[in-house]
Specification:
The complex is a heterodimer of chains A (about 200) and B (about 80). With about 200 residues, chain A is mainly α. Chain A is built from 9 helices and 2 strands. The C terminus of chain A is likely disordered. The chains are: A mainly alpha (about 200), B mainly alpha (about 80).
Chain lengths: ~200, ~80
């Protein structure tokens, strides 16, 4: 491999950068972080829905990339390898943590049972800007409400623009199953917000 | 949403995905839409998937906050101590 040239760092492929990083060229790792920090934030935020938790998760992903550089083999795309790490982290940390918009209803203040229900506001608000904001919130909620195995592939395709092959490699799911889940995930998102959003006027 | 429970041949799933992503040639799209006319559940799935993809494209992009790289480097340095 040619000598590493920091001035040409933006011209290197991800895989070249990893190889230089494996040979202790730290600026190569920095370039990889710059390339993927926003994409990872955009992806992992849909698991955490909290900016601080999201940054922690993104940092942990890069930390593991940094520590595990010796285990990366060039035969795999760097992005696939990194997203596999990110996905496994997201699943292990947030598997049982689902963020729902909940309202606590106490029928009787002396009642120790706390009933929590997911309530959707069926009213379409008159203020257009607020309505659009709520529509996007509903869209986020719809995405988060998908079954996890549907949500992860939908996010990888529609938020991260990964190819079907890359998604199959990152998740270990056969490509046919990936496509089937994405098709149904997208359809479910549409149906979940259909009752709230007047698609003809809001979008 | 019983249409979500039906399984289709992988070739059909490919067409649904391509239809949702506007990746079909004009003739292919017209042919597929002819098929959709005659299958209610398949039509429901394909139309919903297409609209769902369009809606998802509107999700706001979340980006790293300023200083992320510096905080990451601090964390890496701490982990090595």
């Amino acid at each position: 491999m040619d000598a590493f040239k920091a001035v040409s760092v933006k011209d290197y492929s991800d895989e070249d950068l990893m190889e230089y990083f494996q040979n202790d060229h730290e600026p190569a790792f920095t370039e990889l972080v710059r390339r993927y920090q926003d994409r990872l934030h955009n992806f992992l935020y849909r698991y955490t829905h909290d900016h601080q938790d999201c940054e922690d998760l993104v940092q942990e992903t890069f930390l593991r990339v940094h520590k595990s550089k010796a285990s990366y083999e060039r035969i795999a795309k760097f992005s696939t390898w990194m997203y596999t790490i990110a996905l496994n982290l997201a699943k292990s940390l947030y598997k049982k943590k689902q963020r729902m918009y909940k309202v606590s209803i106490h029928k009787d203040p002396n009642d120790s049972e706390d009933f929590e229900m997911h309530i959707e506001d069926p009213n379409i608000l008159p203020d257009q800007e607020l309505h659009e904001k709520l529509s996007l919130e509903q869209l986020e909620k719809a995405l988060m409400s998908l079954p996890e195995d549907f949500r992860e592939v939908v996010m990888l395709r529609d938020l991260q623009d990964m190819t079907y092959e890359e998604i199959s490699d990152a998740t270990g799911i056969p490509m046919g199953t990936v496509k089937s889940r994405i098709n149904r995930g997208r359809a479910q998102v549409q149906h979940m917000i259909e009752s709230y959003v007047d698609l003809g006027t809001s979008f | 949403m019983k249409f979500l429970d039906k399984e289709y041949h992988p070739v059909i799933e490919n067409y649904i995905a391509d239809y949702a992503e506007d990746n079909l040639e004009l003739v292919e799209r017209d042919t597929f839409e002819e098929v959709l006319v005659h299958d209610d559940d398949l039509r429901e799935l394909a139309f919903s998937a297409k609209e769902g993809k369009r809606l998802l494209s509107m999700l706001q992009e979340v980006k790293a906050k300023e200083g992320f790289l510096e905080r990451l480097n601090d964390r890496i340095a701490q982990s090595e101590n």
